[in-house]
Specification:
Blueprint lengths: L6 E2 L6 H4 L8 H21 L2 H8 L4 H29 L3 H20 L3 H29 L5 H30 L3 H7 L1 H14 L8 E2 L6 H4 L3 H16 L5 H9 L8 H25 L2 H20 L3 H29 L5 H30 L1 H28 L8
Antiparallel strand pairs: 1-2
């Protein structure tokens, strides 16, 4: 085509995914949500039991647990920058998502076969590489097929369906622990099945929108990154400060164990967290499309402060369950909105790169937060860890309030871009 120097255009959008005039969300958003649901069932069956398995069966320390969780989660978010850029370069996102979900599914049997912490670390690493590969292309695909005025609802729906899986996974883990008399390895084998179903649903149920520009140049170049603009980098900064205030959920599980929950019942912590996450994510996203994102973000940070305080002051498992429920509400109020803000602040041809870079910076924050949480626990116990979380959450709240005016001037927090 004449007059095109930076991008090669691929065929026009398929009519089924281009409809944005009504209030109904595109089918691909629902399909991606169901894929996330199945994979989260698979992952959370393992993750809700893994900290207890590592500490009680394999005998690792809390500091080692923090290292494993921090490196694993940081790996996932750092890999996103390359998969996101590659999805922009190719103009295709579904293939990368299939590869990422496939890796996640194939890692599950490794947990069951692990003779020691080394293989668990490898399995967790491969699983999170898969998550990193799929994350940015999937999130960019949601924005590709959704009109701007529905992005909050779209990301909220995907997060909500994702958290249905995150709710069902620990519940299944608890039931399977009862049924198998605490056979961790058998349960880890069974976790492979919903992961395989997620890959099949992605292959058969997701229709990628054509018409996404393919980059002629590699997006991770200074000239290309400069096109993201100030508003995008402000969202990245806000997201990284938020992430410093929220370390790995593995510490919620260990807080339950610390205060008397048995290995069989400890998945209840994740059930409580993900039930409130599930119920709040979609309404929060939909509300942000009407009222703007910033007020809900402030509410979410206030809820995180409350959650950390409850967990720091906890004297029995009931307090832990209450703190976990507040933690999930915080997630529902903030996580989908951060994704919508990244989409608001980025252009379609650099959207995968934008989500990937956001994941890189927040991944480094996750690593730092989890290592610090493990060290605080090793030094002063669970209460000190969550008092530290409270302090970071208050700092994040102050930072966002001070930067809110800039966010609003750039039009990112109003949900209209």
């Amino acid at each position: 085509m004449s007059g095109i120097s930076e991008q090669d255009q691929v065929p026009a959008p398929m009519p089924v995914e281009s409809a944005g005039s009504g209030s109904r969300l595109p089918g691909t958003v629902w399909a991606l949500g169901c894929v996330s649901l199945c994979m989260d069932v698979s992952s959370e069956i393992i993750h809700s039991l893994l900290p207890v398995f590592l500490v009680t069966v394999l005998g690792v320390s809390m500091q080692t647990l923090g290292l494993i969780e921090g490196v694993a989660e940081a790996t996932a978010t750092m890999v996103r920058v390359f998969s996101g850029a590659l999805s922009d370069r190719l103009g295709r996102r579904k293939l990368l998502a299939i590869f990422g979900y496939g890796l996640g599914a194939l890692s599950k049997p490794m947990f069951a076969m692990a003779p020691g912490v080394g293989m668990v670390f490898s399995a967790r690493f491969i699983d999170r590489i898969g998550k990193g590969i799929r994350g940015a292309p999937r999130d960019a695909l949601v924005a590709d097929v959704t009109p701007p005025e529905q992005r909050g609802a779209a990301y909220g729906l995907r997060q909500s369906l994702d958290s249905v899986g995150a709710f069902a996974g620990p519940l299944l883990a608890m039931l399977l622990m009862f049924a198998s008399a605490g056979n961790f390895r058998m349960i880890f084998w069974l976790a492979f099945l919903p992961g395989l179903l997620a890959v099949l649903l992605l292959i058969l149920g997701v229709r990628e929108k054509c018409g996404v520009a393919r980059k002629r140049h590699w997006p991770l170049q200074r000239a290309q990154l400069a096109r993201l603009g100030r508003s995008y980098w402000l969202v990245v900064l806000v997201g990284s400060v938020f992430t410093l205030a929220r370390f790995s959920e593995a510490f919620l599980l260990m807080r339950g164990t610390d205060l008397g929950l048995s290995a069989t019942l400890v998945p209840l912590v994740m059930v409580m967290m993900n039930s409130t996450y599930m119920l709040s994510a979609y309404p929060a996203g939909k509300l942000s499309d009407r009222l703007g994102r910033n007020g809900l973000m402030i509410c979410g940070l206030l809820v995180l402060v409350l959650s950390d305080l409850i967990l720091a002051l906890a004297v029995n498992p009931w307090w832990v369950l209450g703190g976990a429920a507040a933690w999930g509400l915080h997630m529902g109020l903030t996580q989908g909105l951060l994704s919508a803000m990244v989409a608001d602040a980025s252009t379609p041809e650099l959207r995968g790169t934008a989500f990937g870079l956001f994941g890189l910076v927040t991944g480094l924050a996750v690593l730092g937060a989890s290592l610090l949480a493990g060290s605080l626990w090793q030094f002063g116990g669970g209460s000190l860890t969550f008092y530290g979380g409270t302090l970071f959450a208050l700092c994040a709240l102050l930072f966002f309030v001070l930067s809110k005016g800039t966010v609003e001037r750039d039009g990112v927090g109003d949900g209209k871009r």
